[in-house]
Every structure is written in structure tokens, then in C-alpha cells.
Design goal:
Layout lengths: L1 H7 L4 H15 L1 H7 L2 H10 L6 H5 L1 H9 L2 H11 L5 H20 L5 H15 L9 H7 L32 H30 L7 H15 L5 H7 L8 H15 L15
Helix pairs in contact: 2-3, 2-10, 2-12, 4-8, 6-9, 12-14, 13-14
């Protein structure tokens, strides 16, 4: 990541992924909208049948493991766990999994962290009306999983908020005095935590950075290439007149962004072309 840090002013993978997801929704809303059609309908069909599924569904980590399991391992998991569900629910799960992957592969977004994120997004959609649903970048920020833990620093360190206070002894202290002391202590701990996280965020590049415009441009190129199916030359034509942009520069930036995001770059042959 050293080269990435120097190019983009210290912005780390978490920041890059967050910005990438935000731009995907801005530049290509139709891609996310398509996830809300057949894949979401298949997921809804599973969710609407709670018998034997509701408890299983609550184990999100288990579901995500099954979603990203290769076919051989998935068959083993099926033999182990299929008895917990009605047979038709397994069929519905496999159908949903197929539709999710068909959509993800179509847009070259089938990496493990993205599949997990899309599942989290669908879980939010299934539990909220349309006007209350989170967008993709917000799900990434709010997720407790490693895909989007915003207490996760660039070196992998996790800094959670923790608070402890002495026990209440009713025989020596009345409730109101204890509550006041507890609230004061919590406020002090809370402020200290915020200061600590702001410091680490600044050091790890999660705050806004003057070099973010370059990152934005390179992410746009990557999205046009990876998801939109444009060639490097076609991308340069979108930026005619801008200094320092040629086929070689676009190719280099797209490759670097793929490395940073942890996304497998599609093969050089032309992908699915979207209209912009």
C-alpha cells in the first residue's frame, strides 16, 4: 500500500472502498437497481417462509459463508446443514445464490467482500420500506463485519468503544448519586474515545484529503472499465482536453485501483457496455 499512500495522500483501503461504493451508486444507479429485481425477489421468497429459516437467517456469518463457498465446499455444507431447513428452502437459497452471482458476475463485482456486502444490503432492504432503506456505502460504513468496520485501521487494529464503571452498592450509596457519577464517567470516556478515534482517523487517512480528487477520477475510470465495460481508449475520450490523461495513464490507474480495492480486474476483452 506504500505506493497508494504516496499517490493519494495516505488514504487507505477502507476509505477507497467507501468512496468507490458511493461513486458506483452515483454513476451507475441502474446496476444497484437491478440487484433489487430478480435477486431481491428470490431473497424475499426465502424470507417470506419463516419456518426453519428465521433462526438460520439470523446467523448472518453462516449465510455469508455459504454464499462465498466454492461448489465443492458448498455441497459439504449442504449435507451438514440441510436437515435444519425444509428441502424447498434449500432449493430457494441455491436459486437466490445463483441469481446473486449471475448479477455480480455480469458487472464484475463477484469478489468475496462485495458478495458479503450485497447480502448485507439485501438484509437491510428486506427489513425496511423503500424510503427508509440504506444505500450501499452506508451499509458498508455501518456493517460490523470486516467489510466495513469503520473502527478498523489501515494496519488491521480494531478500536472499539469500551466502558466500565464500579458496581452500585445500595447499602452505601443512593441511586441518584450513583447514576450521576455513572453518567459523568460515561461522558468523560465517550469524549476520550471520540478524540482517540479522530486522531487515528487522521493518521490513517480516513478524513478528507486534498488528493482525493485524483482518487475520485481514478475510481471513475475503474468503474467505467470494470462495470461499464468501456475500453481504456473510450475512457480517455470521456476526458478529452484534460491534462495528463492518455490510454497508458488510464490503464495504470485502473490496475492500481483494482489492487487497492481488492477487486479482481476483468479480462481485457470488452465487457458489458452501459450507456452514460
Amino acid at each position: 500500500m506504500a505506493e497508494f499512500d504516496s499517490i493519494y495522500g495516505g488514504l487507505n483501503q477502507w476509505s477507497a472502498r467507501l468512496y468507490f461504493l458511493d461513486l458506483v451508486e452515483t454513476l451507475m444507479p441502474e446496476v444497484i437497481a437491478e440487484l433489487g429485481k430478480k435477486p431481491f425477489e428470490a431473497f424475499s421468497a426465502i424470507h417470506s417462509n419463516p419456518t426453519g429459516w428465521e433462526t438460520f437467517l439470523n446467523k448472518k456469518s453462516k449465510i455469508k459463508d455459504l454464499l462465498i463457498s466454492p461448489p465443492g465446499k458448498l455441497r459439504t455444507e449442504l449435507l451438514t446443514d440441510r436437515g435444519k431447513l425444509q428441502p424447498n428452502l434449500w432449493a430457494k437459497f441455491l436459486f437466490f445464490r445463483k441469481l446473486l452471482y449471475d448479477w455480480a458476475i455480469k458487472y464484475n463485482l463477484a469478489d468475496e467482500w462485495l458478495i458479503k456486502l450485497f447480502f448485507e444490503l439485501l438484509c437491510d432492504w428486506i427489513n425496511h420500506p423503500k424510503d427508509e432503506r440504506k444505500d450501499l456505502s452506508t451499509v458498508f460504513e455501518d456493517s460490523s463485519d470486516s467489510i466495513g468496520d469503520n473502527s478498523q485501521l489501515s494496519n488491521g487494529t480494531s478500536i472499539k468503544f469500551e466502558f466500565q464503571f464500579r458496581e452500585w452498592r445500595p447499602d452505601v450509596e443512593n441511586k441518584s448519586d450513583y447514576r450521576k457519577a455513572l453518567q459523568n464517567s460515561f461522558k468523560v470516556s465517550e469524549n476520550e474515545y471520540f478524540k482517540k478515534m479522530e486522531k487515528f482517523a487522521l493518521e490513517s487517512g480516513k478524513k478528507r484529503n486534498p488528493r482525493k480528487n485524483k482518487l475520485k477520477t481514478h475510481l471513475e475510470w475503474f468503474i467505467y472499465y470494470q462495470i461499464g465495460g468501456k475500453t481504456y481508449r473510450e475512457i480517455t475520450e470521456l476526458y478529452i482536453g484534460e491534462k495528463g490523461i492518455d490510454v497508458q495513464a488510464v490503464h495504470k490507474a485502473v490496475y492500481e485501483i483494482a489492487e487497492v480495492l481488492g477487486v479482481k480486474l476483468r479480462k481485457g476483452k470488452r465487457g458489458r457496455k452501459l450507456n452514460f
